[in-house]
Structures are given as C-alpha cells and as structure tokens.
Amino acid sequence: MRTFAALALLAQVCQLALAIESAPYDLVNSAETYEERVYPAQKWVTTSHLSISHQEATSDVMFRKLFNYIDGQNDAAIKIDMTAPVTTLVIPDEGPNCENNFTMSFYVPAAHQDNPPTPTNPDVYIEERPELHVFSRRFHGFANDEDWIVNAAQLHDDLVAAGEEGVDFQTYYTVGYDSPFVIIGRNNEVWFMKNDMN
C-alpha cells in the first residue's frame, strides 16, 4: 500500500512538472550536442548573491527568496504559478574574495508579463531581460557544482570546435527545469550567450 501511495505521489509531481509554463523561445539551430536559441525580451523576477559555491547560493539563499515572491510576498499579496526554467547567471570571481556572482531568475508567467506584482523583499526585483541569444547544452540528473563546470567546459569546447563566433565565454547560465521533488528524468542546461553583432 505504501508503495502504491508513493507511486501515486510521484505521478502527481510529474504531472505538475509537465504542466509548468515555460519561457518561450525560437530554435535557431540544433547540433548534435547543443542548441542555438533566441529568447524574446521578457520580464523575470530576480535576485543575486555572492558565493564560492553554486549549490549554496542557489539552494539556500536565492531560490527561497524567489519562491517567497511567487508564494505571496509581493505588493498584490497573490500567489503566482511556478514556471520553468530557473536560470542562474554566473559571473566568475567578481566578489572581493574571488566569490562568484550568482543571479537567479524565475520567468514571470504570461498572465503577469504586462504588470507583474512588485516584490516586497528589497533583495528581489523585476528584471526587464532583453532578447537573449544562447547556445544550450542539456544534461540530466541532480546537478552539483562539478556537473555545471564540466558541462560548461564541454559546451565551450563544442562551440569552439564548431567555429561558432561571437560567443561570450566569460559568463554562463546554469538552468534547471524541475522541482526538487522530481527524482527521475531531471533536465538541466548550461548556456553561453551569443553577442549579436547586428
């Protein structure tokens, strides 16, 4: 009976995960190990943190602040649906003690894009993210600091080998699509941004 209940709960979690609204994008090109995409200008709710560890910054500090925003800590006191992906911009060694600057964002759902509620936490703000042109590499499982670095390095090597030009390798995004409760089939990505010349 317990096994059945656990499987039923897992099925509900998976169903919720599939129903999450995702940020729209246009697929420009699909290579064997990466995709090239363009995300239109959209609003995201965002917060930042300096830390040595990706896991510490994202799990313990930033995610909680952003989740509180969608859970009602906003000037409208309303709950906002969770979306995907959760993006984290990583700027290496920007802090005074060589910490990385992590900037985590949740996509604001389409229903609130025109007029999102204002966060009540001063560490959280609505970001007007301009069009974003990225190269994306997908991998699976629970990601730790090493997984992000290894996959970013592999994407770097693949893009260099393919002769892709105008790529910003100084910063990168880590990207998650799944709730912490999703155990099987987790999807993660690393992104490098393309500097459009036109």
* Helix percent band: 25-40%
Name the overall outline.
globular
Question: What topology, given as strand order, has the largest sheet?
Answer: 2-3-9-11-10-6-7-4-8
The end-to-end distance, rounded to whole angstroms, is: 61 Å
Gyration radius over CA: 17 Å
CATH superfamily: Regulatory factor, effector binding domain
Q: From the helix content, strand content and strand pairing, which structural class follows?
A: alpha+beta
Mean pLDDT: 87
Give the strand content.
Answer: 35-45%
Q: Fill in the CATH topology.
A: Multidrug-efflux Transporter 1 Regulator Bmrr, Chain A
Question: What's the number of helices?
Answer: 3
**Which series of helices and strands comes N to C?**
HEEEEHEEEEEHEE
Taken together, the total number of domains comes to 1
Main beta sheet, described?
9 strands, antiparallel
Are there runs of 5+ residues with pLDDT below 50, and where?
3-17
Q: Count the strands?
A: 11
Signal peptide: 1-19
Keywords: Signal
Family: Belongs to the HEBP family.
Protein name: Putative heme-binding protein 2-like
